Amino acid sequence: MVLSLNSTGTQVTEFLMMCLPGMQDTQHWLSVALAPLLVLALGANFVLLLAIWQEASLHEPMYYLLAILSLLDVILCLTVIPKVLLIFWFNMKPISFAGCFLQMFIMNTFLPMESSTFLVMAYDRYVAICHPLRYPSLITEQFVINAAIFIVLRNFLATLPTPVLAARLNYCASNVVENCICANISVAKLSCGDIYLNKLYQFVSVWCLLGSDLVLILLSYCFILRAVMRLQSGGAATKALSTCGSHLILILFFYTLLLVFIFTNKAGKKVPSEVPILLNVLHHLIPPALNPIVYGVRTQEIKQGIIKLLKYHY
Hints:
Elements: E1 4-5, E2 11-12, E3 14-17, H1 31-54, H2 61-90, E4 94-96, H3 97-130, H4 135-138, H5 141-159, H6 161-167, E5 176-177, H7 184-188, H8 196-229, H9 234-266, H10 274-283, H11 286-298, H12 300-313
Parallel strand pairs: 3-5
Antiparallel strand pairs: 1-2, 3-4
Helix pairs in contact: 1-2, 1-11, 1-12, 2-3, 2-5, 2-11, 3-5, 3-6, 3-8, 3-9, 6-8, 8-9, 9-10, 9-11, 11-12
Domain G-protein coupled receptors family 1 profile: 44-295
Main location: membrane
Keywords: G-protein coupled receptor, Membrane, Olfaction, Receptor, Sensory transduction, Transducer, Transmembrane, Transmembrane helix
């Protein structure tokens, strides 16, 4: 990438992450909450991944999908949160051009990948409850492989233009990003060029990817709920509702936090600028911390696999 020149004619080789502009004196206190959440998120996801890898009874499509979700969570956490903590603790605000756009690419690609994984998991539960006799023939290891290929290719191709469009802009003004992370618009608005296309493409891609996933997920759970209500066995209905309920709560939390961030960001001056910035950071941390815990607690097979893993090592 060709490096840009700022207004003084000097070469711009990095951005400075201002993080929370109105909380410069107190933002380090946020690390008191963020650091333990990061440790919890990484620890819980690594334990879940190890349990699925080592426990033979968990070598099934449903648990492979959970492993994909955990892997995405780990990548998102490590892409965003360590840099935020370095800013809070050591005032390490500089980030290289390449590093900034790499972070932007990973965030814009892996969040929709997580959304697509939730969609595939919803389909898995739909088949298990609405078409149980066909489940072994439909949800196979080959299905998981095909789903993983779909998740990667769909979101990679759809979101790649976002960082490419931002990287091609001419950054000839300030290089101070008023954000904790290299969000597309936060970086693009520092350029001297027209960023209408950047805003339009991000808006269309986000709503097409995440919006279609959410609609299909809710549709799947409507069919699941209708099938559960028809079950003759009260125990089977309760178990199905309990399992799917925990899944649906995590999914709705993922999308609700994302929607709140989008709407607060659109509200502009009506909402303090620190609010959407902090929500964006938390969206890369809270779902990854909650997902493995809820699935581990609510799924008996995973709970047993984790207990065996801990007993084996201790």
